[in-house]
Amino acid sequence: xxxxxxxxxxxxxxxxxxxxxxxxxxxxxxxxxxxxxxxxxxxxxxxxxxxxxxxxxxxxxxxxxxxxxxxxxxxxxxxxxxxxxxxxxxxxxxxxxxxxxxxxxxxxxxxxxxxxxxxxxxxxxxxxxxxxxxxxxxxxxxxxxxxxxxxxxxxxxxxxxxxxxxxxxxxxxxxxxxxxxxxxxxxxxxxxxxxxxxxxxxxxxxxxxxxxxxxxxxxxxxxxxxxxxxxxxxxxxxxxxxxxxxxxxxxxxxxxxxxxxxxxxxxxxxxxxxxxxxxxxxxxxxxxxxxxxxxxxxxxxxxxxxxxxxxxxxxxxxxxxxxxxxxxxxxxxxxxxxxxxxxxxxx
Amino acid sequence: xxxxxxxxxxxxxxxxxxxxxxxxxxxxxxxxxxxxxxxxxxxxxxxxxxxxxxxxxxxxxxxxxxxxxxxxxxxxxxxxxxxxxxxxxxxxxxxxxxxxxxxxxxxxxxxxxxxxxxxxxxxxxxxxxxxxxxxxxxxxxxxxxxxxxxxxxxxxxxxxxxxxxxxxxxxxxxxxxxxxxxxxxxxxxxxxxxxxxxxxxxxxxxxxxxxxxxxxxxxxxxxxxxxxxxxxxxxxxxxxxxxxxxxxxxxxxxxxxxxxxxxxxxxxxxxxxxxxxxxxxxxxxxxxxxxxxxxxxxxxxxxxxxxxxxxxxxxxxxxxxxxxxxxxxxxxxxxxxxxxxxxxxxxxxxxxxxxxxxxxxxxxxxxxxxxxxxxxxxxxxxxxxxxxxxxxxxxxxxxxxxxxxxxxxxxxxxxxxxxxxxxxxxxxxxxxxxxxxxxxxxxxxxxxxxxxxxxxxxxxxxxxxxxxxxxxxxxxxxxxxxxxxxxxxxxxxxxxxxxxxxxxxxxxxxxx
Lengths: 347, 512
Known about the structure:
Strand content of chain B: 25-35%
Low-confidence stretches of chain A: none
Largest sheet of chain A: none
Order of helices and strands of chain A: HHHHHHHHHHH
Largest sheet of chain B: 7 strands, mixed
Number of helices of chain B: 15
Number of domains of chain B: 6
Distance between the termini of chain B: 77 Å
Distance between the termini of chain A: 23 Å
Oligomer: heterodimer
Shape of chain B: elongated
Mean pLDDT of chain A: 87
Radius of gyration of chain B: 38 Å
Mean pLDDT of chain B: 89
Number of strands of chain A: 0
Number of domains of chain A: 2
Number of strands of chain B: 22
Structural class of chain A: mainly alpha
Number of helices of chain A: 11
Strand content of chain A: under 5%
């Protein structure tokens, strides 16, 4: 069976689940929430089955190139969304993880899905441990990012009379809420120009333009206009739609506290052990290694300021957002833009 | 002294150092590392001098990065020492140091009616009666979690210490060989001398670029020569030799049995001492081999073409062609040439040397290069010498289907046509010795253990303060959020309200 079809089904499930989650929140219908959850579960199960098929067909875990990595990461993200809302319904978090999963499968489709035998460097059981654990950690960081984004959104729309946010916090929240889509679009436009200058990648550049840049531009514009026009109504409804700021902050911490050890052990320590076995040294300041260390350092800073100095709120939300940007650069930026010993992961 | 100590104890310092290390690490991935000084000045005309002055050309061994690492290590060490006091207090004398106010301040708690003394004793492992008549009880679980932070920090320090040992005492060297080659492996000291000589030479080149007459250049030269001698002595009396016995490639195959891609590169090597084999084995990627101080890793694989076959035709339209040809010679002639090996042939009085062979020839940025090791577009550069060793002409050899007009490829009266080349594998092994590794692995183990203990082990303190008016406050705290502790509070209340169990003999006597 062709697993690409299964991944397409799961992508559709994620999209439908996202629409139903949003409807359940705005219409306040718990029945819709249950249906959305079932559909998200179906999508996650389908993606898991698809990954199983791919593993069986390829004879190795689906972690050997960009396409497989992104599909795997999207599945882990959907699973992490489920895990976090297991005891307490968090419809917008689940909707966010569904959108994140769709985006990742969408970006994955830009890369070759051809099954190829493992190159000698990847023929090691450390591939299973190193990459999969790091991805579970990154999925948790993605959840923390979604929660932090919601946190900033909430702060931004908090009425001026409330003592929820001061001007400084509001400005920071605005930078995160508005800055992220803009930087995403700027990044994608740069990637578009970069790819369109290479005759080999012109098709990919066109796909990015029509399937990523234009739809995101349009959605962001419509959302921004609607949010501005109905800011009062949305502001008052966010109380209902989103958990309290403190809960969002606590959940962000929990997502990071869950992902940080997994990423550190999987991404850094297992990576060191594997590098030592394959290249004769556990650390060589290769760009991928260095960016994994940078990710670790950013989240270490988050944990230090939160646990020891008691920082909470907008500042820690910003560190969490920064951490996720760094994580994504480690995943995409280094593979696509910087030449490294991990270049095989870019294809 | 106290100010310095306070500086290192401060978490602000640690966070600032983490941020600095983050920024420097980022810069290190964008600035190309370990280039020559002139390359920085050419590539970055505006900031090249700054990059060199700040030592960002070798970021991770540069002063700024090393200082940050040292300061962070000291800060971590101070943190371990200062935190040990509070951790040990929490581990061994938590109840003794807790006050009623502190317990009252915990978020999850409630007032209940005081349990019976039997029940209290049964549920709480530690109970203390205070002077003001209060009874305070404590039950803890997951104490290992308290040591998590300690283990993480100690592990981090061990990794850094191991890394430092590796930087100073570790060595790496590339070893290349073809089947039949025996490569001398110098002692660790000799390889370390070569490494230091390389590093000093690079420094000297950079200094010379800016001030050619700098006084320290002479000192550098002397030092490099001394180190080079140590290395050469090491090569002359090697620790052992590596013999390349066999090199082969395993392939993946498609359904029709055709090879598709490479499965593994394999090197069968033997370790020789006094030309006698003392150990042997096969190394491939992800499967290293160790011998004596060194471990060998399959790091590189080349296909080389040391010997090629060429057909030679005579071009009579060149001026004075007769002076290049032996009288009576017949053409075409097929000859074999070895790389950099002068060869004489009966058809010419000249000596021909194969200077370069490119199996996949391209002209990139005006340079002649081979873009792969496969025989896709072979090109050979041949140079002709007279009897005195002077160059008399140059020529290119291409395959039949790619040959251009003879005048373009040869200024000799011969047209060389490439016929074939026998590939030979060349294996590249990375040889490494790092005495810091055991400490690094120990650090990694402690770090992992600390992460598991600190983040995944739930630590819980269950408190009870029994007042003298038959009321009691039960409180729960730990390293989990309040909402996760609430069910535990209810469970504790239930546990305390249960009637005290009576012993079976007491039960029997009551029944009688």
